[in-house]
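Quick board copy: two proteins, each given as sequence then tokens.
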Amino acid sequence: MAVPAASGCYVGGVRRQLRDGFGRYTYPNSFFKYEGEWKDGKKHGHGKFLMKDGSYYEGELVNGEIEGNGVRYWASSGNEYCGQFSQGEVHGYGVMKYFDGTLYEGEFNYGARAGHGALTDKQGQIYRGAFHNHMKHGEGELFYKNGDHYQGDWVVDRQQGHGVMKYADGSLYEGQWRNGLFNGQGSIIHCSGMVYDGMWINGRPASEATKLVILGEPIQELVQGSPFTIEVQLQNNEGEVMEAENGRLLQIWAGVKHIQLSPNFSTTSLELPEDTEEPLIETPYGYNAISYPLVEYVPDLDKIASTESEIMKIKDIEGSGSKLDFVAATGSVNRSLNGEEDSVPVLVIQRAERGYAAFRNIELALPSHCYRPFMILDELEKKASKKSTSKTLSEKGTESQEKITESRSDVSIKIGRKTKSGTELPSIRLGEYVIMVTDMTSPPFLGRALPTAFKLLKVVPKKPSKTGARKEPHKVLSK
């Protein structure tokens, strides 16, 4: 702000006495008023300028110019500054309080924020670092109101260059930025445990996983009673494996076809357990499925744990570079041991590494005597058998087989097994099961969960063995 001149003048060739000391002066235009110290006819020392619109300056003046420390208030904007001035301009170190609640403390260069300073905006976010021409420019850090924290390079008010962002939820990104977004080489450790290290374009991975793919044929045969392995890849739309991804949490589980009973079908003769309604799972095979748990394969049935206190098993697979977490879960399908006590089934959870995961040494759980879908299948078999008693043996065999096959969706034939003590054990039903692998990463990585992958598993009878010995574990899939 330039200070209007108000010095002494000559009258009749005689110079009048120059103002000196304290005094008040009103300018001819009446917009400015000054009261303060004078020296040799110039405003010098401490003084105050009052303007007609309510604006003012109060502080130091040198030889008629605002120079030094002072306070300036602008009535038109409501802003107020306290700090250093030079040649009438805000210059040097000071504090600017803006009308909207923003506060800046730091260096100015002739009216503009420049140099090092701290800016607290009206949302409560705090930036500390370098400025140029009012904008964040150079190195600085920003504390967000929600707890996020960025430290790194800025260009024209945006994150650009190298920077580190620590999110309130625990996620951490370090790498290159452009226009306020991840751009270039960078890595993120997501709060879900997932890690991505690679190239980024406009805030997203340059090539990101879009689907889960179960390796092998769409339908795989499995010998009854054998364990199996399911291998999964994380792929993009082009079918490329996303090796830059690590730690995505995947869950494998099984299901059987949901049998839609007709209104005329009566279940009064069945002692169905209460509160057994389970959510239906939509599959790509034209029918809905009901969950059928998986268990860890145990070769010796007599050594299977039967107490519900064993709710968690964690097994490290040496040499595979991966870890299986067997998480306990309740359910109506248990691995029966003696017909009275059931073990607790498990859901198999694993984290993918370099875009790949393998669920090893798992098997279908042995059915409980009260598993609803199989109880209904048994009842359908009985009804089909009764209806065909009046027919010829050939007709009976044909029609009964057709009805059973249709109603149970190829899940049929129970072959009993016995323990060493002679107790009859239920066995895995032969037929078709649905294997599913679901992205359980929580919260979803970058707000997007991968769709569930499906595979059909067809259980076939075990071929008779001359020695009677049990076969070695059979892998359904191999990488």
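And the next:
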Amino acid sequence: METLEDPGTFGLSPAKGRMRDQVGWGLVLLLSVLAYGSHAPLISLCKVGGRVPFSSSSVVVLVELVKLTVSSVLFLAHDHGSSASRDAISAWAALPFAVPASLYAVNNNLVVHMQHHMDPVTFQVLSNLKIAATAAFYSLLLRQWLSARKWLALCLLMAAGICHTGAMHGQAGEREPMTHDRMYITLQGAIAIAAYCSISGLSAVYTEWALKSQPLPLNLQNLFLYTFGVAVNLVVHTASSPSTSFFQGYSVWVAVIVGSQALNGLLMSVIMKYNNSMTRLFVISCSMLVNAVLSIFLFNLQLTPLFFVAVGLICLAIHLYYRVR
């Protein structure tokens, strides 16, 4: 993996500088895994009578607003005085970030639409195809060709996702009645899941390209990205929930969700800027383990053999991709 800073920037010896970089980078990855993995359990804690009582689109708006606020504060504190930042504040510099904001909004709506055309298990299993989509766009658009060994590692990640879905669904099925007694998917659902995975991969790779193609401070780029994010998602929320109170159904757990997802988004931008989209995939896969561990403590989830298969596949995938021993 790439490091966040050149060792010499800390004024330390190369060995100490590298160690500090590695610790900092490890902390970013760990926090991102924890934030991403806590999302589903936190959503479950918010449910009332088995249903989510709040508007998911309003939560997305708040998450984008928190990220925008944090980015603005960091920009004013660290980057505002630089001549490069002042010269870069223009419509042309900001415009590329409207694309990922729009793509993310489309995918958020697709997720809702797909629930009517397939069962949740089918969605969870097929959504692992976004790993392959991300790798394909990474190779085609960024000209970062992956070796056969790395493709094998990504295939193992997809297999781990399927095993994790099987493990979690097996336990959930014992606690909650199924809406459908079998897995199913309609033609519209198949088209929607293909679009969802493709857009997910494209938006991740495009965001990486946008962050790396401009020699701008990350805080300024985040300010551009989340300004569009707030605007686009506010329009989506207004159109989808015109008569619903913005804060209807909110609780302390919703505030925790907003904070954790905002943190996750900011950390993901660090990963995309200083590493790549492939590392993001590994963060998402590792977060499944956090999801399972939290479910054990919060909902008395009993682990099945499939969970341990998923853990083994993720470890093997990390070893193959990054040659970690």
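Board note added afterward: Confidence is low (pLDDT under 50) at residues 1-13, 173-180.
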